[in-house]
Write a structure and sequence with these properties.
The protein is an alpha+beta fold and 434 residues long. The protein folds into 3 domains: 246 residues, 2-Layer Sandwich (BirA Bifunctional Protein, domain 2), CATH 3.30.930; 51 residues, no CATH class; 89 residues, Rossmann fold (3-Layer(aba) Sandwich), CATH 3.40.50. The strands form 3 sheets. It has an 8-stranded mixed β-sheet. It has a 5-stranded mixed β-sheet with strand order 13-12-14-15-16, sandwiched between helices. Helix 1 runs antiparallel to helix 5 and helix 2 crosses helix 4. It is elongated, with a radius of gyration of 28 Å. Bound molecules: histidyl-adenosine monophosphate. The site of histidyl-adenosine monophosphate has 27 residues, from strand 6, strand 10, strand 11 and helix 11. Homodimer. It holds the Pfam family tRNA-synt_His. This is Histidine--tRNA ligase.
């Protein structure tokens, strides 16, 4: 848009906001097919659906995702309503999910409570290939249990979804960033390392020293990447329970033959994580062959308290970046269930027939007979040629005579043989066709 849409300015160019697009045609079906498959896998693993609002209180997102993260510092979309509320478009699903858990008192239900959810999320990110400002995530989360098998379950179910979508070369990047017992000592060591190397630290990362020093580990700055090679790693600082938890998660992965790589610099861009953090990588990568993080997740045992709960709710989850899946060269183009190949092409001729056409189409729909039509066309030739082009095996021809007789002509497009069939017998007749 050349001019801002303020309501006062004249629109000079018709376009959607930058980084936000219309989903349609093949891309729409690709998304829908993926969501159907992902839900199916999630349901087999025992996850139940939930859908939280697209807008949340700004303080929930800021408190949940945390200061010092790119999301809160740069990418959050906020608005003040006419009633004076400060709201934010959700930049992810996890803080809203935990809000729902606490708000509905789900602590009283049998634990863990397992949810899947999917939908658009919003981040004022720099748009580029595979990076949008409105994008779609599919999440799996187990809330209310701190056992390592929950981490393994989330990883396994996520891997299965990605494999069903066509990914073949998956591996897990994994790390443990400890809990409140051991993280303090680690952070002290880490900040002291950066302080010693302050002159080599770019300004953005120096800023992070104050807000969120852990994030320096996943800095994209070249100088910092070099410094990080020698930085102390969190695993060496884990307390005994965290060490045990991490060891168990890795044992589960080995038992399931899931390839993993311990990445000591993996901290993830959200501040609510404790213990396990992970990303699933497709080694084959995108069109340029660059390995792609298809999703990320981890444990977030303190998020509940961070957003105002009186009690901790141990939890673990994962989020798949769906835009990246459907654009990947290996994506299987999962077809949504509602898409049916038409078996019949409906042709109408003359005003009397056109008048009754929609009634016949409704009879076919109710009987689940998939059809195609071009009701706006009038001539037999143009309608037949579309049927041929679409390679539809049968045509129903409904002309003036048939409209008066309450019948139709059914034409076999392969050999051009035809039968006249009474409307009352049509469904029976169609059932007999191959
Ligand atoms: P995240 O790593 O921020 O985690 O996002 C998950 C995935 O969303 C990324 O791995 C990526 O595939 C995709 N993604 C992120 N930003 C963009 C973008 N601008 N355009 C397109 N795709 C993008 C979370 O959001 C956590 N809530 C995950 C989680 C669930 N942790 C626990 N439960």
């Amino acid at each position: 848009m050349k001019k801002a849409h303020t309501g006062k300015n004249k629109i000079t160019e018709v376009s959607s906001p930058k980084g936000m697009r219309d989903l349609m045609n093949e891309e729409y079906y690709s998304f829908q097919g993926f969501f159907e498959k992902a839900q199916e896998v999630a349901v087999y693993y025992g996850f139940k659906p939930i859908e939280t609002p697209m807008l949340e209180h700004q303080e929930l997102i800021e408190g949940g995702v945390g200061a010092g993260t790119d999301i809160v510092d740069k990418e959050i979309y906020t608005l003040k309503t006419k009633g004076g509320d400060h709201l934010a478009l959700r930049p992810e699903h996890t803080a809203p999910l935990m809000r729902a858990y606490v708000e509905h008192g789900m602590q009283t239900m049998p634990q863990p409570v397992m949810f899947y959810q999917y939908g658009p999320v919003f981040r004022h990110d720099k748009p580029q290939r595979g990076r949008y400002r409105q994008f779609w995530q599919f999440d799996l989360d187990c809330l209310g249990n701190d056992k390592s098998i929950m981490d393994a379950l989330v990883i396994k179910a996520s891997m299965s979804i990605l494999e069903e979508a066509g990914a073949t070369d998956l591996s897990v990047d994994i790390n443990s960033i400890g809990d409140k017992e051991c993280r303090g000592a680690y952070l002290k060591e880490l900040t002291s390392y950066y302080r010693k190397n302050l002159s080599g630290l770019p300004a953005v990362d120096r800023e992070r020293m104050k807000t969120n020093p852990l994030r320096i580990l996943d800095s994209k700055e070249e100088k910092t990447i070099k410094l990080n090679e020698q930085a102390p790693d969190s695993i060496s600082f884990l307390c005994a329970p965290c060490k045990k938890h991490f060891k168990e998660v890795l044992e589960y992965l080995e038992e399931m033959n899931i390839a993993y790589n311990i990445n000591k610099n993996l901290v993830r861009g959200l501040s609510y994580y404790t213990r396990t953090v992970f990303e699933i990588i497709e080694q084959g990568g995108n069109e340029d062959g660059i390995p792609l993080a298809l999703g990320g997740g981890g444990r977030y045992d303190y998020l509940a308290r961070q957003i105002g709960s009186k009690k901790d709710v141990p939890a673990v989850g994962f989020s798949i970046g769906v835009d990246r899946i459907v654009a990947a060269p290996w994506y299987k183009k999962l077809s949504p269930r509602i898409l049916k190949k038409p078996k019949i092409y409906f042709i109408q001729l003359g005003a009397e027939a056109k008048l009754k056409s929609l009634n016949i189409i409704e009879i076919l729909r109710k009987a689940h007979v998939p059809i195609a039509q071009s009701l706006s066309k009038d001539s037999l030739g143009s309608q037949l040629s579309i049927a041929e082009k679409l390679s539809i095996p049968y045509a129903i021809i409904f002309g003036v005579k048939e409209a008066l007789d309450n019948s139709v002509i059914v034409r076999d497009m392969s050999n051009r043989s035809q039968d006249t069939v009474k409307l009352s017998k049509l469904l029976e007749y169609l059932k007999e066709l191959k």
